[in-house]
Write a structure and sequence with these properties.
Blueprint (H helix, E strand, L loop, with lengths): L7 E8 L6 H16 L5 E7 L9 H14 L3 E3 L9 H7 L6 E3 L3 E3 L9 E2 L1 E6 L2 E8 L12 H5 E3 L2 H17 L5 E5 L3 H10 L5 E3 L16 E3 L5 E5 L7 E9 L5 E10 L7 H11 L4 E7 L13 H14 L3 E5 L10 E4 H7 L6 E7 H12 L12 E4 L1 E6 L4 E7 L5 E3 L10 E7 H4 L17 E2 L4 H10 L5 E2 L6 E4 L1
Parallel strand pairs: 1-2, 2-3, 3-4, 4-6, 8-10, 10-11, 11-13, 16-26, 17-24, 21-27
Antiparallel strand pairs: 1-14, 5-9, 7-8, 12-13, 14-15, 16-18, 17-20, 19-24, 19-25, 21-22, 22-23
């Protein structure tokens, strides 16, 4: 390690990808309060978020998310893809009272857009006479990760190669001002952040997000990397859904080089919910509607993006039944929670499917459906298993861990299994499909954009949460949620 001369000690509280999980936000607030109260002499304390704290287009939940960020006292947050589930107008309004900066160096907004003066590329934060250059970036794949809405139309984003050049230029600007402690809040994912660490001179810390990695401690080659000049760069990422938050402690020498580091990632379940914040959420959201009773339900899948998921099957069944289609197709990434035995209410349903897209019915050919399943199956081979496999109702299929669809059957409403040739699906045979407008607009690249082309039957002004609530209310007996084998994962 490099010897320190006049070292600067810095402690950073951070979180990412909370996805508007209210209970965990209230717990992270408690963690934040403990961080504030901790006695650390001669230490600069900083607080950051790296995006996807909001989720979906439900205004009340996003108001809660912004209240949470203000309450935890972060100084800035990168913009993630889920911040753009809302329109630019809505995002500008939601953040108008933000006490933190919103950052996106690789975003481009027209001057007449309400976000024009809201999004910043970078800024300088000063603590105890020490200056830190803070840069934030949104996901370069932003348009692939949001539905066809005004955000996709009005927000331009640089691709990753151009984003690297954007960051390099900003780092050089900081260097010209004698700022040698530079932190990047990145919602680009771990693989891209490793490239940033190794290809751009002058960055010290990258607070990563987007790929939901849980990075504990400091591990050489994993989150301790080196720039081309040999200076250390530390990357953090604290999982997903507010299940963890972290504190990074570092020591800089007088040249702004990290000489010591400690990365503490803590489980939020070990902390009580902050009572005032929890009460504020309840006041904003109002009372939940009691729906029925879940008799039994399996545990949540270990990897919700690729594992068979009976909770997602239940959502898909609700869509197929309530919208009267041949089948329903749901991106596994849309299903963020799970059902538990006991009384079920509308807020618990929203925790399972919180994205607030719009339900849609459309016609897809047998070939389009098969191609979509094949595209989803490639998630087994992709970093972080993104985007996800497809959770169906009215289909049964076998997928290999090598990302191939092996067998496929259509299940009609009488339960009869009709085989589909996965190698030669019929391009002329069509099915009615229930989905959402993220899927139907080509989100995750599973099907072509049907929404922009107007190739759909009906667009609804509600999403899977309302559909599932309506479905549950029709049950006269307690509900059993179980794995019926509609997805088999082969070795």
């Amino acid at each position: 390690m490099i010897n320190s001369i006049n070292p600067c000690n810095t402690s950073i509280f951070y979180y990412n990808d909370i996805h508007c999980r209210l209970g965990n936000m209230a717990r992270v607030k408690t963690m934040s309060d403990f961080f504030d109260l901790s006695e650390q002499e001669n230490t600069d304390k900083l607080k950051f978020a790296s995006g996807d704290i909001m989720l979906g287009a439900d205004d009340k939940y996003n108001v809660c998310a912004n209240m949470f960020m203000n309450a935890t006292g972060i100084s800035s947050s990168a913009l993630g893809n889920h911040e753009f589930d809302s329109s630019p107008d809505e995002l500008a309004r939601l953040t108008q009272n933000a006490k933190f900066k919103v950052l996106g160096i690789n975003l481009h907004v027209a001057k007449d857009n309400p976000l024009y003066n809201r999004i910043e590329k970078s800024y300088i934060e000063e603590k105890n006479g020490h200056k830190y250059g803070i840069i934030g970036l949104a996901p370069p794949d932003l348009h692939e990760r949001i539905r066809a809405n005004k955000s996709r139309e009005q927000i331009a984003v640089d691709d990753f190669e151009k984003t690297i050049q954007d960051i390099k230029a900003e780092v050089e600007k900081f260097k010209s001002q004698d700022i040698n402690k530079i932190i990047v809040l990145s919602h680009s994912g771990l693989a891209k952040d490793r490239r940033i660490a190794e290809e751009i001179e002058g960055i010290d810390i990258i607070m990563s997000a987007h790929t939901h990695e849980l990075i504990k401690d400091i591990k050489e080659g994993e989150n301790l990397l080196y720039s081309q000049s040999g200076e250390p760069v530390i990357i953090t990422q604290a999982g997903k859904d507010g299940e963890q938050a972290g504190v990074l402690n570092v020591e800089f020498n007088s040249d702004g080089v990290i000489t010591k580091a400690q990365n503490n990632v803590m489980e939020t379940k070990d902390f009580r919910r902050n009572i005032p914040l929890r009460a504020a959420f309840e006041q904003i959201l109002g009372p939940a509607e009691k729906l029925g009773v879940i008799k039994s339900a399996p545990p949540a899948p270990a990897d919700r993006l690729v594992d068979p998921n009976p909770h997602a099957y239940f959502i898909a069944d609700a869509m197929r039944k309530e919208l009267g289609t041949d089948m329903a197709l749901v991106n596994a990434g849309n299903v963020r929670g799970y059902f538990e035995a006991g009384t079920i209410d509308s807020r618990q349903v929203f925790e399972v499917v919180p994205l607030k897209n719009n339900a849609v019915t459309l016609k897809l050919t047998e070939k389009e459906i098969t191609d979509a399943l094949k595209s989803g199956a490639k998630s087994f081979l992709n970093p972080g298993h993104k985007p996800s496999v497809i959770m169906p109702s009215g289909l049964k299929y076998t997928v290999s861990k090598q990302g191939e669809i092996k067998e496929l059957y259509f299940i009609d409403k009488q339960g009869k299994e009709v085989p589909i040739d996965v190698n030669n699906p019929n391009p002329n045979k069509t099915y009615t499909v229930a989905a959402d407008d993220f899927f139907a607009s080509g989100g995750d690249g599973l099907i072509p954009d049907k929404m922009t082309a107007g190739q759909y039957d009906k667009l609804f002004d509600y999403d899977k949460d309302k559909i599932t609530c309506d479905y549950i209310k029709k049950f006269t007996e307690p509900i059993e949620i179980k794995d019926d084998g509609r997805i088999t994962v082969a070795g």
